[in-house]
Each structure stands twice: as structure tokens, then as C-alpha cells.
Predict the structure.
Amino acid sequence: MHNQKKGNRKPLLLINTLFVLFLAGLLLVLFNAPEETTSHLPHDPNHEQFHAIASKKEAEKNCGACHDPDGQAPLPENHPPKFRCLFCHKRK
Ligand code: HEC
Ligand code: HEC
């Protein structure tokens, strides 16, 4: 009985070691991640008012006025899915 218990320890040690190595690798990837490149919400007369609206969801209701396809500044054709503008174009 006693011996059997001891025998089961080794796989557990192996799994723990692999888990620690996995976490170390994950941390390495996170620390080496490239800097965020998506443009921030600009600070200019067009956009200043939206920095002041606390709720992202409320602020985003106004973006289409200029950034819709027929607005003054339509989004580029290859723009990613555009729901929730401010999740990607952060305010700073
Ligand atoms: C009154 C019109 C107007 C509204 C409303 C507006 N924008 Fe813009 N936006 C512009 C114009 C014009 C440009 C291009 C010139 C510039 O950078 O100001 C622009 C540029 C941008 C850019 C690119 C900045 C860069 O660095 O290239 C982002 C991101 C952006 N807008 C996000 C938003 C978001 C998010 C909203 C809603 C919260 C919004 N805009 C509302 C007119 C507007
Ligand atoms: C899933 C993330 C995401 C969302 C959501 C999003 N965008 Fe973008 N947007 C990008 C990326 C990535 C680019 C490519 C250029 C870059 O790196 O900023 C871009 C480009 C733009 C540009 C062209 C100027 C520039 O910075 O290259 C404008 C203007 C813009 N987005 C406005 C908006 C508006 C307005 C909304 C909401 C209706 C929105 N975006 C939602 C990721 C996003």
C-alpha cells in the first residue's frame, strides 16, 4: 500500500513541472507582446467631447455621424468589425 502511493508521486511531479514551464512561457509571451498599435481616440475639436462622456457606449453612438460610409471620414475599406469603437481606439 505504502509503496503504491509513493509510485504515484512521479507523474504528479512531472505534471507540476510542465505546468510551471507552461506558465513561464506564457509570461514570456505576454511581456514580449508588441506595443498596442491601434490609434487612440484623437484629442481634437472633432473628438474632444467624446473624451468627456463617461460611458463608452454612450460616446460611441456619435461616431457614425462622421465615420459612416457616407460621412466626412468613412472608415478604411479593410477596417476590422467596428462594433464598440472605443474598445480598440482607446481614450487616453
Ligand atoms: C464631427 C465628426 C467626427 C465625429 C463625431 C467623430 N470623428 Fe473620428 N475623425 C473625424 C475626422 C474628420 C477624422 C480624420 C482627421 C482627424 O484625425 O481628425 C477622424 C479620425 C478618427 C480616428 C483616427 C485617428 C488617427 O490617429 O488616425 C479615430 C480612431 C477616430 N476618428 C475615432 C472616432 C470615434 C471612436 C468616434 C466616436 C466616439 C469619432 N471618431 C467621432 C471626425 C469625427
Ligand atoms: C476590433 C477593433 C476595432 C474596432 C471595434 C474599431 N476599430 Fe477602427 N481601426 C482598428 C484598426 C486595427 C485600424 C487600422 C489602423 C490602426 O492601426 O489604427 C482602424 C482604423 C480606423 C480609422 C482610420 C484611421 C486609423 O487610425 O488608421 C478610423 C477613423 C477608425 N478606425 C474609426 C473607428 C470607429 C469610428 C469605430 C466604431 C464605429 C471603430 N474604428 C471601431 C480597430 C478597430
